[in-house]
Amino acid sequence: MGEFTTITWDVADGIGTLTLNRPDRLNGMTNRMLIETAELLDQVAHRSDVRVVVLTGAGKGFCPGADLKHYTEAGQNPAEADDELQPEHFRVPVLLHELPQITIAAINGACAGAGLGWAAACDLRVAARSATFNTAFLAVAVAGDMGLPWSLPRLVGAAKARELSFLPGKFSAQEALGHGLVTHVWDDAVFRKEVGVLVARLAEAAPLALRGMKANYLAAERMNFGDFIDLESERHLRITASRDTTEAFAAFVEKRTPSFEGR
Q1: How far, in Å, CA of 193 to CA of 191, rounded?
Q2: pLDDT tens-digit readout, 31-57
Q3: Using one digit for the tens of pLDDT, what is the confidence trace for 159-181?
Q4: Of 88, 176, 201, 204, which shows the fewest CB atoms inside 10 Å?
Q5: Are 262 and 242 in contact (CB under 8 A)?
Q6: Distance between CA atoms of residues 198 and 180, nearest Å
């Protein structure tokens, strides 16, 4: 992994944590952050030692979208010349959605605009009680980016997604839970602990089965039912013939914790 200036990356016990790291700006997005995140996720996709990827923010924010102050002043900053975006850099939400690992957005603060697009692309979203949400794009006269019109209707329904987009405004973590945008809301004091418990549970699952299940969900998004059943059945037969499944069956019968090898 290269050296990053706007994000950090840590791996422990099969869990990779990608932290957006501009806390003085509540982790507002810049070209450099977009470039670094795209480069990192492209590498993570090929790592078999990482089972779960957590996306979160340093300090008090998750990501409130583009750092508008930064972009307003960018013309006066020569360093911006080195941060010209290419089409592949805008594929961060695609990478988050299609990584073979399970992706979780741990939303610890303001989550809006492009930041909401990244969160919505993940497999799961959980939030601290003080977190706030906003589509935000129309409020600053842009149509939006980061795939929100694709991902948001799949999470909250077509009508609610349009309402949140066409009539932007802040809404709470509890409201996000009601909309189906997040699956859990925890008090700030226990948020990181509860995220750790949830992520550890995922990381302890049988690796082949976990990746296979993620692959099934991705395939189901683009296939008709009959073709999907054929693919699912082939993958099911292959995985159930693995050592891990044999071990899981035996552990269930013997009432013990299974020990998985990833094969």
Answers
A1: 5
A2: 999 999 999 999 999 999 999 999 999
A3: 999 999 999 999 999 999 999 99
A4: 201
A5: no
A6: 18
38 near 121, Cβ under 8 Å?
Answer: no
Its pTM surpasses 0.70: yes
Question: What's the pLDDT at 72?
Answer: 79
Report which residue type is found at 86: Q
Query: Of 182, 65, 63, whose CA–CA distance to 127 is shortest?
Result: 182
CB 51 within 8 Å of CB 202: yes
Q: Are 9 and 16 in contact (CB under 8 A)?
A: yes
CA geometry: angle 117, 46, 120, nearest 5 deg: 15
pLDDT in tens, 200-254: 999 999 999 999 999 999 999 999 999 999 999 999 999 999 998 888 889 889 8
CA angle 202, 207, 210 (to 5 degrees): 60
